[in-house]
């Protein structure tokens, strides 16, 4: 395949990210029928490769046109019910937004918030879990507004120890395929993500991995009051594609599925293993962070968290030096053909910028 992208500025925001040539080429696939023998195995393999990517042989992947945000709606409507108590661990903008989405559907939300650049500690989480029976806890593995990396393995272990009935729900939009995740082994019930970050595709796909307890939760509730987002409609479609006998509910975005297929092939089949891929992300992240430090710049993630693997490997949030702001730096980088992301966190957005270094 000889295919080259038009010249463009290097996109180094924390998603959407640069898309590899072969993935972009797959995205330009000629039109196919969404139920054709040509397309069906492609979608089926995408679902299988997603299980490998998050190491979740027992999970049901659900891939639907939409952005990551739609995952919050899906979880609110299919796994949870109005009145359920949910503990939201908040390490930035995206924890707040997840909480907002849950409240929209009548879920009773309690947020455990860390100071900016920090994350809630195990003692606080334990105390909350002991204070009431939560139906679910949500954790943002990497909050893209702060670059805080949560220790989802440790939190999930704690939940299983203190409150085993509580479902563990992970927002992996800024972490899947960049940060280590072992969904089954770590006892995670739901992971939601999207196509445009570590998965290396254009935006447009919402991806949710539903573990057996999340499926039980769906089955034990009355049918969700939504048409498009109802998993009772989508799960049979997903199963049918894996079985090679497609059924129809809502046309899948065939080109994006081709793109995701190509990207997942690289992620799951090489040239490097998933473990090696995580290691490469850690190395790339260290290079960026070491350089930031060598320039005398600080990160939004607290020093303490930086020292204990609490800074994301998929992105870096960099504080502007005293006396400089976005207008002094971002347009100058753009002149050098590099696009960095502006700050996102309310009250802090003029104090820092973000560098994405995930994916290929
Ligand atoms: C951690 C996190 N969650 C959720 C979202 C929402 O995803 P989307 O913008 O695809 O709707 C984002 C987007 O950047 C994110 O970073």
From TrEMBL:
Keywords, comma-separated and alphabetical: Aminotransferase, Pyridoxal phosphate, Transferase
GO BP term (any one): glycine biosynthetic process, by transamination of glyoxylate
Name under which the protein is recorded: alanine--glyoxylate transaminase
InterPro entries: Aminotrans_V_dom, PyrdxlP-dep_Trfase, PyrdxlP-dep_Trfase_major, PyrdxlP-dep_Trfase_small, SP_NH2Trfase/AEP_transaminase
Binding site for substrate: 354
Modified residues (N6-(pyridoxal phosphate)lysine): 197
Residue ranges of domain Aminotransferase class V in the record: 24-339
Species of provenance: Malassezia vespertilionis
